[in-house]
Design goal:
Radius of gyration: 23 Å
Helix content: 55-70%
CATH topology of the largest domain: Diaminopimelate Epimerase, Chain A, domain 1
Shape: elongated
Structural class: alpha/beta
CATH class of the largest domain: Alpha Beta
Strand content: 5-15%
Oligomer: single chain
């Protein structure tokens, strides 16, 4: 699932480099095509539909149990295959579950990208999970104490608005610039200002 072009990836990398020149903090941007396969959903909903199949035929027809049973198996098989189609599969999963999975992957990426090890605890992750239509900023303790949730939320909203308009690259650049300005305000560059983490956009494989 492509969200951002190669040219925009370069713009994002340049934006991170530029933002980190003004701060001792670290910014990492991550895109995940999805945060879960949700393969349970097609089987669950197909099974529920198949369980409902026999009742009208048992009560209102003279069909044999064996015939109804075969029909039940057929309904399960057809629906299970049909629901594997990704848009349908995702539609069958409750929004709360998709958001929980995406949030968990954001936290995992915060740890995987070693943002929790930065000096001064000033790492910030900008995370987008495409299939779940989910975006989040995860900030380490040092910067999280100085910037309100409302501020992070406004940056995320601007990012998702741009993604919705098909301008994901611009959205990421604006988010990085905003995060960078807050980091620069509270954590200006130190005497060495050595950047600890990679400055490119990280695109994860599908789950």
């Amino acid at each position: 699932m492509t969200l951002i072009s190669e040219a925009d990836k370069e713009r994002v990398a340049d934006a991170i480099t530029e933002a980190e020149r003004t701060t001792s903090g670290e910014i990492v941007a991550v895109i995940a095509p999805d945060s879960g396969s949700y393969l349970h959903a097609p089987f669950l909903w197909a099974a529920l539909a198949a369980l409902a199949v026999p009742w009208p035929f048992i009560h209102w027809t003279w069909w044999s149990i064996q015939y109804i049973y075969l029909m039940q198996i057929g309904v399960f098989a057809v629906l299970a295959v049909a629901f594997m189609y990704e848009p349908l599969r995702l539609a069958l999963v409750p929004r709360s579950l998709k958001q929980a999975r995406a949030h968990r992957r954001a936290v995992e990426q915060f740890l995987v990208q070693n943002l929790h090890t930065t000096e001064g605890r000033t790492g910030v992750l900008i995370f987008v999970s495409v299939a779940e239509r989910y975006a989040e900023i995860v900030a380490d303790a040092g910067i999280h104490q100085k910037v309100s949730e409302e501020t992070w939320g406004a940056i995320v909203k601007d990012l998702t608005d741009h993604i919705g308009r098909g301008a994901a690259g611009e959205g990421f650049v604006r988010a990085i610039e905003s995060v960078g300005s807050h980091l620069a305000q509270h954590f200006p560059p130190g005497p060495r200002n050595s950047q600890e983490l990679a400055n490119h956009l990280i695109v994860l494989p599908s789950e």
